[in-house]
Automatic annotation (TrEMBL):
Organism expressing this protein natively: Trifolium medium
Keyword Coiled coil: yes
Coiled coil, from the record: 83-131
UniProt keywords, alphabetically: Coiled coil
Protein's UniProt name: Uncharacterized protein
Amino acid sequence: MEDDLLIFPSNITAESEAIKAEFADAVDSYAKIIQKKIEGRGMKCVKQIMEYAEKANVKILTLTPYFDPIERMWLDVFEKELTTAFREERERLLKEKQRIEEKKKKLEEEKKKAEREAEQKEAEAMIVEYSSLEASSQNKGKLSTDSGLPAYILKMQEDIEAQRIRKENMAETQKNISARQENMDSKLDAILAFLTPKT
């Protein structure tokens, strides 16, 4: 064709298009023949696989453990009971710990209170003993210039005396407050009686 004298590019294009059309038709025909041969083969194969799986009762392999519905139900019940038991035990331990801490704190307070009472009783006993010795010494005409008692005993003696004075002052103050309260009550009663309309 390329040796012909009266040949143009358009002739080549037309010829090539005709060849491509014939080739495309041949390919389409061949594709249709193959499609007819394998038509329905894929779905049939899938159905057969599903049937085989159902007959064999094959479980699907996944990352999640497989359980039957009944097994799953019992597993859920077990997990719920286990969680509840852990929570109740934790609450019980927390309450027990709190109870022990409160008891320990109470024992420490009682111990400190007992120690303070023992120290106070000891100081009072020593003061009484010292007073007895001092009275005996005075009866014999011996004046003591030095008590001979430790400084902390003398400090306790001063504290006890100061506490006694404070109690007396508090009693007097309370007495004055009660008197003022009674006076205010009587004045309020008089005012209410004055404001109350007489019938």
